[in-house]
Design brief:
The complex is a heterodimer. Chain A starts with a strand and ends with a strand. The radius of gyration of chain A is 14 Å and the shape is globular. By secondary structure, chain A is mainly β. Helices cover 0% and strands 52% of the residues of chain A. In chain A, strands 2, 5, 6, 10, 11 and 12 form a six-stranded mixed β-sheet that branches. Chain B is mainly β. Chain B has no helices and eleven strands. Chain B is globular. In chain B, 37% of the residues are buried. Classes of the chains: A mainly beta, B mainly beta. Chain A binds chain B through residues 32, 36, 41-44, 46, 49, 51, 90, 94-96, 99-107, and chain B through 32, 34, 42-46, 49, 93, 95, 97, 99-100, 102, 104-107, 109-112, 114.
Chain lengths: 114, 118
């Protein structure tokens, strides 16, 4: 069975500081990996995805993520956080062998201090 | 491209009534649509997978008689919460799959529907 773990439930970061959100997955075949952001009361917005190729993926809003197969990780990073980045972030894994189902991690809530 | 809409965005109903939520893929045809449920401060949990023209496949623990899913066309799936009760209050999110066959069926998400049952 596939699973996703986001070890950090909450992260507080100062505006302008760097941010890294951890994601570890379990999947028995080639994983398709995603990061989404959700603001309160809103739907999901796709930040970036990894299907294949270059393991460092660039996304929207200045975010990037690195796929490390040996560590089963897909951590999200941003060099300099803006107050508008305060939100909930979800990592998800899917794949062809899972009937295209997505499994989401528990989420990480990011708070940005001025 | 790949836009998915949901209607309504917010609904309040009385206990015991039924509520229908629509999910539409606006600019693509979706053989497969997915329905998720999200409780406050929690993650998304897959409720069911619906394929156009066939019965939905429900995840373990989801009552199929309570959450009726219809996928009558390649652009529309509906979720009906029957005899809703306060514990059904939640944020319901749909997604539509683009792709399929031998390629990955990437999901595109709707904006969600907030259901409040009084």
């Amino acid at each position: 069975a596939q699973s996703v773990t986001q070890p950090d439930i909450h992260i507080t970061v100062s505006e302008g500081a760097s941010l890294e959100l951890r994601c570890n997955y379990s999947y028995g075949a080639t994983p398709y990996l995603f990061w989404y952001v959700q603001s309160p009361g809103q739907g999901l917005q796709l930040l970036l995805k990894y299907f294949s190729g270059d393991t460092l993926v660039q996304g929207i809003k200045g975010f990037e993520a690195e796929f490390k197969r040996s560590q089963s990780s897909f951590n999200l990073r941003k060099p300099s956080v803006h107050w508008s980045d305060a939100a909930e972030y979800f990592c998800a894994v899917g794949g062809l062998t899972a009937g295209n189902k997505l499994t989401f991690g528990g989420g990480t809530r990011v708070l940005v201090k001025p | 491209g790949a836009v998915v809409s949901q209607h309504p965005s917010r609904v309040i109903c009385k206990s015991g009534t039924s509520v229908k939520i629509e999910c539409r893929s606006l600019d693509f045809q979706a053989t497969t649509m997915f329905w998720y449920r999200q409780f406050p401060k929690q993650s998304l949990m897959l409720m069911a997978t619906s394929n156009e023209g066939s019965k939905a496949t429900y995840e373990q623990g989801v009552e199929k008689d309570k959450f009726l899913i219809n996928h009558a066309s390649l652009t529309l799936s509906t979720l009906t919460v029957t005899s809703a009760h306060p514990e059904d209050s939640s944020f319901y999110i749909c997604s539509a799959g683009l792709g399929g066959g031998t390629s990955y069926n990437e999901q595109f998400f709707g904006p969600g529907t907030r259901l409040t049952v009084l």
